[in-house]
């Protein structure tokens, strides 16, 4: 039975819009609330305001609390409180450099976002640089590469490249921004066949913490080329990136959905199957609880189900044969796997597009024995009472595990699996979500590497940020941050602190 997974994505998004409204109006007992910014009195917005100096320098726009442009500070995860001193809607890379230099002169700090994914809380003395207007996207089919501005989402690049049979290595959600994803490494639906998305980067243009605009390649500023691939915004604010585009016109992929009652059979079969899965195929498995809405296919609505996500770049017959053991693991409720154009890569995970409140926790695992599967099922399987929307395992290995052509700051290529726990911190489960997620992660601690990925479960907690890197990489990121950001302008958010 085939179905259009876009219906699932729409259903999840429309359901959680209600949760957005709930969280925005939540009480302290209900969980984190997103405060509405208070308008700045007119007297404080006079010519004497320090920020007027910056506004006069910009080609773009400076928005204070109460200004229409200030809404750009709202992150995709609306459960994250953000009330920066002002938002700079940069028109070009010169605006980015002007803002960084201004902050250095006046002892301020600068954070950055484009789409608002991966947001962390910001103090109110921070300037938030919004790069959404840096929207250049140029594909060079003959050379199989693209130049992409910091405000561009993966979907735009996919649309431009797909007619040429080229495949930007996007993540599971094509509505995520290109730059933020690449600076965190990038584990996408083709990660086992094509490796980390950041391995496709050939050049960055970046404003470092000293306010200088630099072009960064393996030969120009190789230290920055090392640190920007995995180091997030620690060393600078990327304004544009140039990436290689692999040749992938189509793939075999989508998802198989099983009844939650069969979760044990499916997860144990998935763990066994993955140990010998050829690297032409990438996969994840998710325990999910979709809402009882008309848009959700009846077999999946309002109940625990299991989704096995799959994407193979092999010949379709080979790809289908490789998936056969999972089709036989238990009765399939919905079979949504087939041959797809690469432009439909988002259908593998069907992640929701609309902003929503979420709480995320994560871990990296070195192995997944039967005991680990049983522990996961006890907390998130049938009868567990799990409050989470999704508990997911992704299989790594293959091309992901191979060293890059140029050394980078991504530190966890030896991990075998990712674990992600995602819930909505809204009533009636608001108080349960975070604690339960911690229990799930703790239950798998015996098989954890101890590391974390930069793009999973965003945090500004220095101890958790440090776990994203091995000791040597952490040392060099700190050294480089001190060199390129001597005033500490970028020492805010999910960055390594020198």
Describe this structure in words.
27% of the residues lie in helices and 21% in strands. Helix 8 (263-274) packs antiparallel against helix 10 (370-380) and helix 10 (370-380) runs antiparallel to helix 11 (430-443). Mean pLDDT is 90; it is low at 1-5 and 9-48. It has helices at residues 6-24, 50-57, 93-106, 154-161, 178-183, 191-194, 222-228, 263-274, 316-327, 370-380, 430-443, 462-466, 471-484; strands spanning 61-63, 86-89, 109-113, 126-130, 137-140, 145-149, 201-207, 213-216, 237-244, 250-259, 281-290, 303-312, 332-335, 338-341, 359-365, 390-395, 417-423. Strand 5 (137-140) and strand 6 (145-149) form a beta hairpin. It starts with 5 loop residues before the first helix and ends in a 14-residue tail after the last helix. The strands form three sheets. Strands 10, 11, 12, 13, 14, 15, 16 and 17 form an eight-stranded antiparallel beta sheet that branches. The protein is globular, with a radius of gyration of 22 Å. It is α+β, with helices and mostly antiparallel strands and 498 residues long.
